Amino acid sequence: xPLAIIIILILAAIMCVASKNTKRAKTISMVSLAVCAAISVxxxxxxxxxxxxxxxxxxxxxxxxxxxxxxxxxxxxxxTIIGFFIIWASLSMISHDVEExxxxxxYFLMLALIGTLCAxxxxxxxxxxxxLLSFPALQQQVS
Length: 143
Hints:
Elements: H1 2-19, H2 22-50, E1 53-57, E2 64-68, H3 70-97, H4 103-134, H5 136-142
Antiparallel strand pairs: 1-2
Helix pairs in contact: 1-2, 1-4, 2-3, 2-4, 3-4
């Protein structure tokens, strides 16, 4: 489910630019951020009730492990909910600041930014956990 947030936001960003329609770009961005915020809240509930979510992608020598803990869930909720409110506030104000034909590009940039922030949170923080666990001396200090 954490990867669904990233995929939804990046695909929605591409759809905003491909549509070249201001109303459609606004609708796509609002719906995608609302869905991603809901997924983030659901993931947070899952982590709080059952512990960390660990996903392993790939085979043994070349696999990527993705660990989603409470910090990642909180950051994902923060990014998607604040992004949703920013997009919601921009619905009425964007026409004063940005030219009409550039509005879909604005929504593309916002969705791509939030999607990459979530990707950094899920992938980079997870890799930092793995680095800490790989060094026995650090593992003893953390425990």
